[in-house]
Design goal:
Elongation Factor Tu (Ef-tu), domain 3, OB fold (Dihydrolipoamide Acetyltransferase, E2P), Helix Hairpins, 3 domains, four-stranded antiparallel beta sheet
Length: 334
């Protein structure tokens, strides 16, 4: 019984090995003879200031290499520095107002208002006594009606002045309304946002490289007045570099994303670059006129993007290349 089980297991292992061998052989066959044609494609970026002004300095020229974050140009930043100073002063003033409102009135102001209220209270009490006395004299016909009315008017006036002083004292003791404080804080927030925007515009007077590469166009010179968004430099990026190639419909089954490729140029036919298929277009198109293939130019092809993993300065934009599948031993297992 054990011998039978071992025999069955052995047959299964042999079958699995045979299937794997056939798949590997099939993969090798599918990739054999695959030769594609296309051109080197390198991304370019147009660099510009986000603000306008007069160019004060340009630090690089055409053909110069640049690194990420390197300063390439500067604008005259004096107008933007003044804008920052003005915005900062406005913010400081509004910040002081918020602190004033939150702290409330000074104790000296409250004490002064209380003293005024006490003074007017004494004056009102005295006017009240005079008025009552004059009223009694009027009953006995000792004074005229006019004199009695004058004393009453002085008493009513003293009462009104006392009430006004008491209201002023209560207002100072209560402090500022929450709505006033909220409004002042809102104005301060707007001033702080304006300051941040002014500082950002000041920073934008310095133009830096967004990535490493080579300057291929210097479009402006020092002293020029430029608007925001006007191209100053055009930089050819170091990464990514790929070959834009085309595969005939009959060979489409031989390629897949991740397939290892070798990229040949006319200048170094014996030293290919390494790459792999990174993209396959889902749509068919006619062969571009600048691509040389052995097929008819009117044949339908699919566009591929072969990412070159070891680019150097010898690769130039638009350079014609020949792309072949890497030897089977170099293919990554799928």
């Amino acid at each position: 019984m054990k011998k039978l089980v071992l025999a069955v297991i052995g047959l299964l292992l042999v079958a699995v090995a045979a299937v794997l061998l056939l798949r590997a052989k099939s993969a090798r066959v599918n990739h054999e003879g695959l030769t594609l044609y296309g051109n080197v494609d390198i991304r370019e970026v147009n660099l510009a200031f986000r603000v306008g002004g007069r160019i004060a300095e340009l630090t690089r020229d055409e053909g110069d290499p640049v690194t990420e974050g390197q300063v390439l140009a500067r604008l005259d930043d004096e107008p933007y520095r003044r804008e920052v100073a003005e915005a900062r002063s406005q913010g400081d003033a509004l910040r002081a107002r918020v602190q004033l409102l939150e702290a409330g009135n000074r104790p000296q102001e409250i004490a002064q208002a209380r003293a005024v209220a006490n003074e007017r209270q004494v004056t009102s009490a005295n006017a009240k006594r005079i008025y009552e006395r004059q009223r009694d004299l009027l009953t006995s016909k000792s004074i005229s009606i006019q004199e009695a009315e004058d004393s009453e008017a002085r008493y009513r006036e003293a009462e009104a002045r006392l009430k006004s002083a008491q209201e002023q004292l209560a207002l100072l003791e209560a402090g500022f309304r929450p709505e006033e404080i909220a409004q002042a804080k809102s104005e301060l927030g707007r001033a702080e946002a304006a300051l941040a925007s002014a500082e950002l515009r000041l920073q934008d007077t310095v133009l830096k490289a967004s990535a490493g590469g080579v300057v291929i166009t210097r479009a402006q010179e020092a002293g020029a007045i430029v608007q925001a968004g006007t191209t100053v430099f055009t930089v050819s990026l170091q990464q990514p570099v790929w070959a834009r190639v085309y595969v005939h419909e009959t060979e489409l089954g031989k390629v897949h994303p991740g397939l290892k490729m070798q990229v040949f140029t006319d200048s170094r036919p014996d030293h290919p670059y390494s790459g792999q298929v990174g993209y396959i277009s889902p749509r068919a198109e006619f062969t571009p006129k600048n691509v040389e293939t052995r097929e008819l130019r009117t044949s339908l092809v699919y566009r591929l993007r072969v990412v070159i993993t070891d680019p150097d300065e010898a690769l130039r934009q638009g350079m014609p290349v020949t792309v072949k599948a890497a030897p089977s031993g170099n293919q990554a297992r799928q």
